[in-house]
Amino acid sequence: MAIRKITEYPETVLGKVGEAVTNFDEKLEKLCDEMFETMYDAEGVGLAAPQIGLSTRLFVMDCEGIKLIAANPEIIKKEGEQSSPEGCLSVGKVPAVVVRAERATLRAQDLKGEWFEREADGYAARCFQHETDHCDGKLFIDHLPKMRREMVVKRFKKEKKWN
Ligand SMILES: [Zn+2]
């Protein structure tokens, strides 16, 4: 297993709609192992394939007791509203308040290609939505008003220079 390099804003792969996962084989399993390893190493709670440079509809997460692999994810149901600070490993974890659904139902395929549905609320529901967005080529900053988005990007660029 290997820790992958995390793709950072504004690399183009982060803005692309991912290709569907079609092969549910050992290669996919190995990739998911590496994604988990990379996510834990970066102290994240979720990681999507575009964040390691692959334009693929796939994410892993381990958030509030929900640990799963989601291939070809979609959010099929949303309820309520929450607004809390959110960050992204691809944007240096610079936080910004994002409005999301309080409760969300994820539909996706597991490592064997079996479809499953999982419901969550709060932080885990936020994670479902954030990671599914990555698979659609969308970043959390795309949900922000222009000014706030620019502030996050500016802070991220500054932090990169310091490191
Ligand atoms: Zn992210």
Structure description:
With 163 residues, this protein is an alpha+beta fold. The chain is 29% helix and 29% strand. The strands form two sheets. It has a five-stranded antiparallel β-sheet with strand order 1-2-3-6-7, with helices on both faces. A two-stranded antiparallel ribbon has the order 4-5. Strand 2 (58-63) and strand 3 form a beta hairpin. Zinc ion (ZN) is lined by residues 88-90, 130, 134. The site of zinc ion has 5 residues, from helix 2.
Short description, anyone?
The protein is α+β, with helices and mostly antiparallel strands and 163 residues long. It is built from 3 helices and 7 strands.
Characteristic terms for this protein:
163 residues; alpha+beta; five-stranded antiparallel β-sheet; two-stranded antiparallel sheet; globular; binds zinc ion
Number of helices: 3
Strand order of the largest sheet: 1-2-3-6-7
β-strand number: 7
Shape designation: globular
Q: Which secondary-structure class do the elements indicate?
A: alpha+beta
Distance between the termini: 26 Å
Per DSSP, what share of the residues sits in E-state strands of 2 or more residues? 25-35%
Strand and helix order: HEEEEEEEHH
Averaging pLDDT over every residue, what do you get? 97
Largest sheet: 5 strands, antiparallel
